Amino acid sequence: MSVGNPKRMTTEEANQLLKKYHEGKCTEAEKALVESSFLDYNENEAGLSKELLDQLKAEVYVALPIHKRNKLRIYGWSSAAAVLVVSILAIAHWRLEENLQLFKQAKVIEDVAPIGNQATLTYEDGESVALNGSKDGLVIKGNTMRYLDGSRIENELTSQMTQTLSTPRGGQYQVVLQDGTKVWLNAASSISYPSSFEGAKERRVSITGEVYFEVAKDRSKPFLVASKDQLIRVLGTHFNVNAYGDNGATTTTLLEGIVSVSLAGKNEGAKLLKPMQQLIAGNGRTVIRAADLELAMAWKNGVFEFRDASLKTILNEVARWYDLEVEYRGEVPNRVFNGSVSRHSNLSVLLKILSYSDIRFRIETDGSPTKKLIVEP
């Protein structure tokens, strides 16, 4: 195919032609001009090194919808073609620079370690104290608070009626309430409670995320746990509440004792749970079934435990524990996984196991505290 000697083309005309080409509106002659102008251009004519020109060519191949990879010769190379090539090279160079900046911003990280003990104690007036990460938890006794090992809390504020203990993504912590009830918080969770239950008819707390309770017995004061969708009433028992809502449901697992669960917005009566039972409420359904205690308590025992778990279910847990954002590129594989991994392991240990199923992972950061886990089939 050939094109005669066209008149001199301005930069604006060249850019308009490139726009038409990109939108697929060029005539065959115009397409030939664009493709051959670039493909026939070499480093001597462009004044560029072969290495850089090869990079630009590769970028143009990706950037423009070229349907024919074979060279289309144009005889009578003209100033119009030269202007067009300069425009193409400018666009390609801009795209290379853009991709280079993105690459620089998205630095690949080799591994991520778990954070472990980390929590913040917030008082009723909004003031807060960052708790010592080298400690396992705190205990409330009367009007004082101490770490579990008996040491003082630095910058402790005057005790107030309501306190909220919260863990960030990647953190966990324990608190012993004033009545002796022991509470463990998983990552991205919280519990709000009064500094004392003295004089109250009930012991009421509220939670978010996932929390395990070992409730001190007191028949005169029932213990109530409120979450977004339900209210649990107990006298003295051990149970776990998962209220993350990843799948739109809240799961209550009973280890010992008896609890009653009332669902928010439901006129039906409270549901009674017996030991080794689990209540799942959400998506318009309520199900009571036999509980897999090993699976339900895995997080408290320092383990990731998966039974026929989807990739998204696993990575939801991973994201909370290692403080990551997960980005899926491409279709998520429809597979299930079984197994266990220590939560004290670096992230690479778990990802290596998952990668045996032909799934690729990459950890990136753009310089901010947030890390991103890229998942590709």
TrEMBL record:
Whether Membrane counts among this entry's keywords is yes
Q: Where is the FecR protein domain?
A: 164-259
Where does the Protein FecR C-terminal domain lie?
Answer: 304-365
**Which chain regions cross the lipid bilayer?**
74-94
Sorted keywords for this record are: Membrane, Transmembrane, Transmembrane helix
Coiled-coil region = none
Q: Which InterPro entries match?
A: FecR, FecR_C, Ferrdict_sens_TM
Q: Does the keyword Transmembrane helix apply?
A: yes
Q: Cross-referenced Pfam families, in alphabetical order?
A: FecR (PF04773), FecR_C (PF16344)
Enumerate the GO terms in the molecular function aspect. sigma factor antagonist activity
Enumerate the PANTHER family for this protein.
Answer: PERIPLASMIC SIGNAL SENSOR AND SIGMA FACTOR ACTIVATOR FECR-RELATED (PTHR30273), PROTEIN FECR (PTHR30273:SF2)
Entry protein name: FecR family protein
Organism expressing this protein natively: Pedobacter xixiisoli
